[in-house]
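Support request, please re-run this one:
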Amino acid sequence: MINPSPINTIQLFSGSKQYKVPRFQRNFTWGVDNASEMLDDLNGCMSADSSNNELYLGPIIFFDNNNSTELEIVDGQQRLTCLQILLMACRDVAHDLGNIPLESDIQNKIAFIDPTSAEIKGPRLIASSSIQMIFDRLADNNNRDDFFPNIINGKSIKRQINKIKPIYDLYKKHIESDAQSLSNLLNVIYNKTYFIIIEIDNQEEAFQIFERTNARGEDLEVSDLLKNYLFSTLDYNNNEIDEKWQEVIDNSGGSLIRLIKYFYVTYKGPINKSILYKGLKKYAGEVSPQVVFDQLYEFSKYFYVVNSGSKDEISQYLSTLNRSGKNKINVSTEKIVNVVYHSLEGFRLFKIFQIYPLIFSAIRLFNRCEKTNNSLKNLTLLFSSLEKYHFINNAVCNRTGNEVEILYANYCKSFNLSRDFDKSVLELLKILKTKLAFRDEFVGKFSDITYSTNTIPLIVYIFDRINNNGLHGNRIPIYNSNPAVLRKINSIEHIYPQKPVNGFTDQNLLESIDYIGNLLVISYHENSKLGNRLPNEKIILLEGDEMRSKIQNLNFIQDFINKYKSQINNWTSLVIQNRGKDLAIEAYEKVWNFSVDG
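Re-run finished. Output below.
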């Protein structure tokens, strides 16, 4: 290690070496709040009574990899990146003021300039890949007419812009095109801010320092620490690692920490987030970092499919399962795909994510074990039963999803050791049945479901499942997990209208209008025809020739007419309450009936 030495910012950005954010580093994560704090610190140095003040901006640790032109940043990329964006804003204010010499001088601190042609040879900072394209464009003042395009080289960079532009705008607005403000700010940046520079020349030590300086147990950093560890033990110059790691990030859908935790749970069982990184390192020591990286990569593809994959993507994923060897089975038939897809729709709607490791472990068990005639049936039973369980306990009874998280994590370990898919699945489902909410609790909670913007998807889901119970391949699609599509194709119809045409209703009825016993799901177009008519008038329209053909496949509407036509002229809060209970009993005993064979 080279001895620490102080250096001010003007020296830092006037040297001959380029600073590079290496692959093992985290992404650029600072936002406007962090950038504003740095600005406040700089402003403190500009006060009249602080002529002798200096602002220490912390240590910067570089790795000298024997490259004569660059140093890799081990610690300090967030601060250096923000300082560079601040200088870019200063440069552009100088341009707006018409001070071309000052603009040129600031540009020299942002990019390397060829002294013979005045052309830009490259930025002084090679930023994190998460912002590099827009950062490089902003560093080149030849792009002044369009610093923030939506696309560069055919690739959308909106996310990169969303990270950088708010910080750039904050800084530029602060200076407000005032020559004196700009001069004062540059004086502080160049002459009153300093760092302690530490250079190391051992790559392993660089990784270790990164880990020590960042291992504070924060969830945000688990992925960065794991990335650092894997990159330090695998082939550091292999671009395939970079590409696969980026795929893992993309597959996470913005939930990288969750993906990594569920990956660990899949193979090793339950763990607290606070010790997740230590657990991952220990697991890598058992099986090798390369195995962990390969497993994580494969798990991420599964995570994407269950977390956000379309029906076609789910079908494609299932088609890769159990298709080789003497015991091969086609898992991607339409019937199985439908069960899996609709179950995943339910998990996403209920926000039940703890299920993901369990399903992955079950699929791995299914792939490797000897099948029986019931194995395919039990695979679909697993999905449908888990959907039913979480609808009853979580979506309706509002129990926390964590009540089975440890059970699921332990069964991941059990599935990993098992050789009998049928026995293991049925054993789990029998345990779940003992944890199922009783009918009275469910009926009470279900009857209390009320209409609101937030509950529209759940209400449509309920009537979809009621309508399609037992139809299998002949399903009539009512629920759609895409909120935009859901709003376009269906509406929630209040049997007794929210705004009756006569403008009168009693208080009890008024308080019951939004309960599920007073609701139907109908197409947006047909809903507009019913308007604010009273219940008896709506029944006449629903039974009429014009609407009958449009709703003939909606069995729950015909059931509603058959059961409640005789009460429609006296549609009271009591009738609404009783209908809610009737729906709840049908739901518990028939639609979401939790039965386990074997």
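The longest helix spans residues 375-396. The radius of gyration is 31 Å.
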